[in-house]
Amino acid sequence: MAGRTVIVNAMVFRADSARTWARAVAVENGRIVAVGNESDVAPYLAGADVVDAEGRLVTPGFTDAHVHPHHGGRNLLGCNLLDASCADDALRRIAEYAAAHPDAEWIVGGGWSQDWFERGCPSAAALDEVVGDRPAFLTNRDGHGGWASTAALRLAGVTASTPDPADGRIERLPGGEPQGTLHEGAMTLIEQAMPPETDDEVEAALLRGQEHLLSHGITGWLDAWVDEPLHRAYLRVAERGDLVGSVVGALWWDREGGLDQIDRLLEWRRQTAPGYRPTAVKLMLDGVVENFTASMLEPYERVGGTGIDMIDPGELKEIVTRLDAEGFQCHFHAIGDAAVRNALDAVEAARMANGWSDLRHSVSHIQVIHPDDIGRFHRLGVIADMQPLWACEDGYQEGLTKPFLGPERSEWQYPFASLVAAGAMLAGGSDWSVSSCDVMAQIHVATTRTPPHDPTEEPLVPGEKIDPVTALAAYTAGSAWHNHDAERGVIAEGNVADLVVLDRNPFVGSTFAETRVDMVMAGGRWVAGKGSD
Q1: In whole angstroms, how far apart are CA 171 and each of 130, 143, 181, 402?
Q2: Which helix (H) or strand (E) holds 97?
Q3: Whether residue 393 sits in one domain with residue 291
Q4: CA 242/CA 423 separation, integer angstroms
Q5: What is the 3-state secondary structure (H, E, C) of 205-241?
Q6: 10-residue averages of pLDDT along the chain (533 residues)
Q7: How many domains, in total, are found in the chain?
Q8: Same domain for 478 and 524?
């Protein structure tokens, strides 16, 4: 049982609806028992662990409304390219990993960036130079593409005669042979040939991912892709008491499974454990702009086509109406303006059929939204789940996004300020390991529209900046509300004591880009940072 802790001399962001501030917080037996000035916490000082915050910012524990801890943990434990800087650096790291793991049946991992390669497509030939005739498969940072060696393509039976799946594309050489990059559903062709993860491997990756999230102050999250092995792993980890975070599992909707799979999802939802609630369903509606699979209302510039609808819009309305009737929270992946509209249309159909509910359906990523759809988020009660780190100028924007969206649609990207002005509820996510789960970096981009490593860069659509308090609230109260977690996200008496102490006060004489997490408390215990030593 957690004991008593009192934090004094702090700038405490309560994240309540009035956006009020405090100076001190007292915690006892895992709950917040007092918040206010030093006089309000004075009765709890005797026998307490007293932390002098020295004027630093204290916030509720962060909630990440869209993250992949298992996938991120697997990358950290495997061939990790997340910190690579370029194609040559990635190939060097792959070579080093292959040499260090001579007995590995497959070389797996990920984290490469599309803007390192011509047309965003690394080749099997380049991979073969560093892995030889060994099978290797490495996913990119956004999880929407994979890089396969020739041996992997051979084992998977992917040849010039292999057709593209309906939900993906095989990059090809001029003669039709596979080039080495596979997009979206085409990745499954390789994954089916790989040895499946063992239960122990899934658990190890999940726990490594949790460790990483906690180090960034994230004490709650929505896992945005929970299949059966990961669902079972969450149950085992939670039942052992090793799950520190408060987790909503978004159960994966099998695009080939039809409505019959709802019975299976209902059975999984009945299987809960302390800290784990599988109450959402993840619906993948499209791909990404960079490989032209994001679903757009109008054709892409230069290449034509409008992308891929991974779920037929008509079927989507029926699916969401059924899930809504069964009490599931629908969590949509939607990048393109057509995908966003399809998600909103499906929720509207569910509202018409079932009446209003408080299920808090959410649309995640929201990269391109047609102006006509901005106000519909508030009118339909749909949460806008943003991943702000992408809303800045970078190699993707320059080479793979703006040229194919064109000037008008490029200005519709990540319209956070417009959504707030229209009354939408914002939640904050990272999509880690697609991008960093550093909340401070996310807030920097949301409020400046410039990269954290180069704030002098020209901002991307600067009119869509939001203020720091709004951004910070999205990662605390907003995301906790998104997760139906009424006891977290706000520093208030009686709430669970999930707290973050930062290394400075970024509101005074500093910036969020420079700010780091110093101490992390979950359930009244220090679980990361200095306090956990």
Answers
A1: 21, 16, 6, 22
A2: helix 87-100
A3: yes
A4: 38
A5: HHHHHHHHHHHCCEEEEEEEEECHHHHHHHHHHHHCC
A6: 88 97 98 97 97 98 97 88 89 94 90 85 93 92 85 94 90 94 91 92 97 98 98 98 98 95 98 97 95 95 96 98 98 98 98 97 98 98 97 88 97 98 98 93 98 92 98 98 98 98 95 97 94 67
A7: 3
A8: no
